[in-house]
Design brief:
Radius of gyration: 24 Å
Order of helices and strands: HHHHHHHHHHHHHHHHH
Shape: globular
Number of strands: 0
């Protein structure tokens, strides 16, 4: 049978348990680990960089630190929407490679730049890193869409995207010890070196798709292509921009994504300072304790994903209701825990870390909540939808740390921090309520803007052929 005539039933899964597609997924997992490690390393490094007991420290105010922490997102938001189109045209591999390679080079330059150019040059470096990481998720969607068979998308997709939280946790755990024993510049040197190693390996192992891979077997290539419906080529549809922007369901995705990013990045950028200034935790313990919540999120993502699939398999809830249940766990849970965290008295370190772990661990619910509704609503334009919501949500990621810096007149005052946590809690609740009211996982009619006319044309041609056969 020719490849064009193959069906999913005709092509069996390759006999080997592991294939080239799994190697691609492992490389993408480590790409996210490294990207997020370089994204959050400043949150820990800045604590050591501004430690007045050290000789090479900088006298940066809390407002200046907030500007540095938010500067990554100034660049990050710029290429979100264009990245999807660039990935479709040039392939995801070249964009992912450029992202990690340039981020690694900039990480190696930050220690020198901070001494010669001050906080302004540090901001420039972070903007460049953010700019290149704008390629990350659109390119990741592109590569997953070409490499991962439908039957394996849940588990391999979860494996890949869990790399973000694993990288965050790993960086937070390692940074304290690295800064303590080798100095804060070693944090950036470590990230840059590991990123360079990954880049070299991926240049040899990576590929845009099974079609362009030099390592994949014909059997595995046909299995992937058939599962994804790529054997006969992929249709290209014109993006229905007007219908997307006027869809209330899509607007609800923007709102909930923005709410998620406000809460998550407030915690990500400000928590090390809170633990150091309010709870009095030294930087080594700070790194370990700050990492626990993200390890919890990494671990929670797997059972929450299984629970979601199981509920849908048993048909206990509709897809829309299941997504909203997961999302409510992911946003309402942290909102409640944040209120509790704001009243933890100084010295109750264990209680504070426990509540923080609950906040971030439960937030894993958004992975099986709104984050995959883009695919439910319009699989043909899921990358574009993600680019739009991620772009706007990360503008919020810029504002959130700046707002925290504006609220925190005295970073050692628990009452000031309580205001920061209250704001995040309210935003979590409001955003999820809006999503519950207006969100949906139903396939949108604008998902196939040209398909109807094609189908009509085919039906017409078929009818004509039938009539001809009858006449003959």
């Amino acid at each position: 049978m020719s490849e064009e005539g193959a069906t999913t039933q005709d092509v069996k899964k390759p006999r080997s348990a592991l294939g080239v597609r799994h190697a691609q997924c492992v490389m993408l997992f480590f790409a996210l680990v490294l990207a997020f490690a370089m994204r959050v390393n400043m949150s820990m490094a800045i604590v050591a960089m501004t430690d007045k007991t050290k000789e090479d420290s900088f006298e940066w105010s809390m407002q200046t630190q907030s500007v540095i922490l938010s500067s990554f997102f100034w660049g990050y938001v710029v290429l979100q929407i264009p990245a999807g189109e660039l990935a479709a045209r040039y392939g995801g591999m070249v964009l992912i490679t450029a992202c990690i390679a340039i981020n690694s080079a900039v990480s190696l330059l930050i220690p020198i730049g901070s001494h010669y150019g001050g906080w302004q040059l540090v901001c420039v470096c972070r903007v460049v890193q953010g700019l290149l990481q704008g390629f990350l998720f659109p390119s990741m969607h592109n590569l997953i869409g070409k490499w991962v068979p439908l039957e394996e998308k849940s588990r391999l997709g979860t494996l890949i995207y869990a790399g973000a939280q694993f990288g965050t946790a790993l960086q937070l755990m390692a940074s304290g010890f690295v800064a303590e024993y080798w100095g804060w510049p070693a944090i950036f040197y470590m990230n840059g070196t590991l990123g360079a190693v990954w880049t070299v390996v991926y240049v040899f192992l990576g590929a845009d798709s099974p079609q362009t891979s030099r390592m994949i077997s014909a059997e595995e290539r046909l299995y992937i292509q058939t599962s994804l419906g790529h054997v006969g080529g992929q249709k290209k549809l014109q993006t229905p921009w007007k219908k997307i922007w006027t869809s209330l369901s899509f607007i609800s995705l923007i709102v909930v994504h923005c709410g998620q990013n406000w809460g998550f990045w407030t915690l990500m950028t400000e928590m090390p300072s809170y633990m150091s200034q309010v709870l009095g935790v030294d930087i080594k313990a700070n790194g370990l304790m700050s990492a626990l919540p993200y390890l919890a999120m990494y671990l929670c993502s797997f059972p929450l994903g299984f629970m979601s699939d199981y509920i849908l398999k048993k048909k206990w809830l509709s897809i829309t209701a299941c997504r909203k249940l997961s999302n409510s766990i992911g946003l309402f849970g942290p909102a409640v825990a944040l209120v509790g965290l704001s009243y933890v008295p100084a010295g109750k370190i264990t209680l504070a870390v426990a509540l923080l772990t609950i906040v971030v661990g439960l937030n894993a619910g958004h992975y099986t909540g709104f984050l995959i509704v883009h695919i439910d609503m319009a699989p043909n334009f899921a990358g574009t939808l993600m680019g739009i919501t991620n772009c706007l949500a990360n503008i919020i990621s810029i504002i959130a740390p700046l707002a925290a810096g504006a609220i925190l007149k005295d970073e050692t005052d628990p009452n000031e921090w309580r205001k920061v946590f209250y704001v995040s809690s309210v935003i979590y609740i409001v955003a999820n309520v809006f999503f519950i009211m207006f969100g949906t996982s139903e396939r949108q009619e604008w998902n196939e803007p040209l398909e109807d006319s094609k189908v009509d044309s085919n039906v017409s041609d078929t009818s004509s052929e039938n009539k001809t056969e009858k006449v003959v």
